[in-house]
Design goal:
Strand order of the largest sheet: 4-3-7-6-5
Cofactor: Mg(2+)
Low-confidence stretches: 1-5, 225-232
Helix content: 55-70%
Number of domains: 3
Subcellular location: Membrane
Protein name: Diguanylate cyclase
InterPro entries: CHASE_dom, CHASE_sf, DGC-Regulatory_Protein, GGDEF_dom, MASE3, Nucleotide_cyclase, Rev_trsase/Diguanyl_cyclase
Number of helices: 23
Distance between the termini: 102 Å
Shape: rod-shaped
Main location: membrane
Structural class: alpha+beta
Radius of gyration: 55 Å
Length: 707
């Protein structure tokens, strides 16, 4: 919609956005240029600095902008062609040619030189081929250049695809999308006939998208990603670009609103001034045309006047009336009396009724008995004049009706003098004015003042009716020399302010976002360090707790922790009056294994025994290694009346134990004590169970004895 209502503003927004993105591409390449394997990025940095410079020249010289006064549509189109050729050839070279370090500086110097030579060829040398001709459209050079750009970009895309193993998948995707959009945009730029056309607008939008995807492809590079600035803030850079675009859109929209308001004010002023000119000019012409009435009155008062009387009367009238080149009387239609005889000698004797060019108008004057205005016409005696001709009728008898045709009174208004009058000259100096005379009777439709463009594309029009003809006054607005922008927004300084403020906003916002990233990184690092410290301390505490509560060899509850658990369980049993059974167990034959196979094998046997003991009890039971080959267990909520659990333990321990391919057998003796039957404290229950264990040893081992 903006492209249709105000293409210049639309173009400025799009081009400024594109220049900003080109600057970001250049910045991304510059940040990664120190990397030995990042040469394409360094080349792209230089390439897009040159492209941004030429694009900025294109935007500022665009037809209708404040900086393009009098340039026309060709120079900005030439800048556009130069920028696209430099960009396309540069992309093809970067992505096709395998650069080595020693060639990079030569490439950059050649790139800068070509850019500067191209800009100078456009302005001020003006030797660059024409790209756009007003009234005709694009030149063959412009169209063929766009197709050349498409070809070079296609080569760059082929180069990326050819070396696809060298690019991450996401980067290659963005680059290929960018190249495809660029080719589509360039095709659009071959289809427009007006610099304000829809194809031109579509091409600019597609190219903006193309630059964005190219930027995304650049920041997806591993070298850029390794750089802290881009690795931390790819999204923030996008936010900065969007913020700048929004700011530029708002600022340019404000200028557009201000411009619209000024146009309304100017239109009101133009209307007042043009109407004032029309009224003044109408009054001036009307006063001149009424001289035919004076001539008629002269004839009626002195029908038999002499040449001297006519000359005296006419000279007296001419002294008081400017812009009149001649007064004439034509009895019976034949010009007989004229002023300034020397100049108008050729008109004397001319028969108006027989002149094919004048016959229609004079007959119409006779038929209508009114003044007929003809012209402006080229006179027989030379020069151009607006001719007012009125028929004169005399009464047949004194006091009777005027029925007898006497002839014509004619007034010749000097067109050159009238159009050079002070009022028209002053107006034409300040405003673009054209005047078209239209006379259906005389078949006149001529532009008598001003240029064709003002007449064809007026801002305002008004008409002056002159009897049978009319004058159309057209105004195209105030001339540049008289255009005074009282508002800062409408001045050329506003664009400079806009560029500076955009740069300040971009830098400030980026620093704010970067600061937030650094703070967030510091907080994350501190948090991570704190978490690691907490985890370390938890591990130390867990280790200390495990050392304090678990047996190192078997992982079972140790003796110290057993006493804590046993006392806690005893308190619970006393409170709820619940019985429980305490087993005191000792391995049979374990000393022989230690003596025969060594302590290492003995330790493995203890681990297997611990696993088998754990498998025989519930999770709510308490099982602990009491020391050496002794184990204790508390079975809550039961007095184990038939002592089935002990039989399970004896059977589990009695199964062969295979260590390093050797099958070993041991047994287990168990002494049992029941709370509260055999004791009311942990210590007393242990003593009773220990005594029962010794009895089991004396009875032959591998059995259970209850206290």
């Amino acid at each position: 919609m903006l492209s249709r209502r105000d293409f210049v503003t639309f173009h400025a927004v799009i081009e400024l956005s594109t220049v900003c993105i080109s600057g970001l591409i250049a910045l991304a390449g510059y940040k990664a240029s120190a990397k030995s394997d990042a040469r394409p990025l360094a080349l792209l940095s230089s390439l897009y600095l040159c492209v941004a410079f030429v694009d900025l020249a294109h935007m500022m010289s665009y037809k209708g902008s404040l900086f393009a006064e009098g340039l026309g549509a060709n120079p900005p189109t030439q800048f556009w062609v130069l920028a696209r050729l430099v960009e396309a050839v540069g992309l093809a070279v970067v992505f096709i040619c395998p650069f080595q370090c020693r060639y990079v500086q030569h490439y950059i110097k050649a790139l800068v030189l070509v850019t500067l030579v191209g800009v100078c060829a456009i302005y001020p040398l003006e030797i660059f081929p024409q790209a756009f001709i007003e009234g005709q459209g694009l030149t063959p050079f412009k169209i063929y250049s766009e197709y050349a750009v498409i070809s070079f970009v296609l080569l760059a895309a082929i180069g990326v695809w050819w070396r696809r193993e060298s690019y991450p998948a996401s980067q290659m995707k963005y680059l290929l999308i960018s190249f495809a959009l660029t080719m589509l945009a360039e095709f659009c730029f071959t289809q427009y006939a007006s610099v304000y056309g829809d194809a031109n607008a579509a091409g600019h939008l597609i190219r903006l998208a193309s630059n964005y995807f190219l930027y995304r492809g650049i920041i997806a590079d591993k070298n850029v990603a390794r750089n802290t600035l881009y690795h931390a803030n790819p999204l923030h850079l996008t936010i900065v670009v969007l913020a700048c675009i929004i700011w530029l859109t708002i600022a340019i929209s404000l200028r557009y609103i201000e411009h619209e308001g000024k146009q309304r004010d100017d239109l009101y002023l133009y209307k007042q001034r043009l109407q004032g000119l029309a009224i003044t000019l109408d009054a001036t012409l009307e006063s001149k045309l009424r001289l035919t009435d004076s001539l008629e009155a002269f004839v009626m008062s002195r029908p038999d006047f002499t040449d001297e009387e006519f000359t005296t009367f006419a000279n007296r009238v001419l002294e008081k009336t400017p812009y009149i080149t001649s007064l004439q009387l034509a009895p019976k239609g034949i010009v007989t009396y004229v002023t300034d005889v020397d100049r108008n000698q050729k008109a004397i004797g001319h028969n108006l009724l027989q002149d094919p060019k004048r016959k229609v108008s004079v007959l119409k004057a006779i038929a209508g008995r009114r003044t007929i205005v003809d012209g402006p016409l080229t006179l027989l005696q030379g020069g151009q004049a607006l001719i007012a001709r009125a028929p004169i009728y005399l009464p047949s008898e004194k006091g009777g009706p005027r029925n007898t045709f006497w002839g014509f009174s004619t007034v010749l208004i000097d067109m050159e003098a009238l159009l050079k009058s002070a009022i028209i000259t002053e107006f034409s100096q300040e405003f673009s004015l054209s005047v078209r005379a239209i006379n259906p009777v005389g078949d006149v439709n001529a532009l008598v003042l001003g240029d064709i463009e003002t007449d064809a594309n007026p801002v305002l029009q008004t008409e002056i009716q002159l009897s049978n003809s009319r004058w159309v006054l057209s105004m195209a607005g105030r001339k540049a020399a008289y255009s005074n922008h009282t508002s800062f927004i409408l001045s050329s300084w506003y664009w400079i302010y806009l560029l500076l403020s955009t740069g300040i906003i971009a830098i400030g916002l980026f620093r704010i976002l970067s600061h937030k990233v650094h703070v967030r990184k510091a907080v994350n690092a501190a948090t991570q360090h704190l978490q690691q410290e907490v985890e370390r301390r938890q591990e130390v505490a867990e280790l200390e707790r495990r050392l304090a509560t678990q047996d190192d060899l078997t992982g079972m509850t140790n003796r110290r922790h057993f006493y804590e658990l046993a006392h806690d369980h005893l308190d619970t049993a006393v409170a709820h009056q619940q019985p429980f059974t305490l087993y005191f167990m000792d391995l049979d034959g374990f000393k022989a294994i230690n003596d025969t196979h060594g302590h290492a094998v003995g330790d493995q046997v203890l681990k297997v025994v611990a696993q088998r003991l754990k498998s025989t009890v519930r999770s709510s039971d308490i099982m602990a290694r009491f020391g050496g080959d002794e184990f204790v267990a508390i079975l809550p909520d039961t007095d184990d009346e038939h002592f089935h659990k002990s039989q399970q333990i004896i059977e589990a321990i009695g199964r062969p134990i295979v260590i390093h391919g050797q099958s070993l057998r041991i047994g287990i003796s168990i002494g049992a004590a029941v709370y509260p039957k055999h004791g009311a404290s942990v210590e007393s229950l242990l003593v009773e169970a220990d005594n029962a264990l010794y009895q089991a040893k004396r009875r032959g081992k591998n059995c259970l004895v209850v206290a």
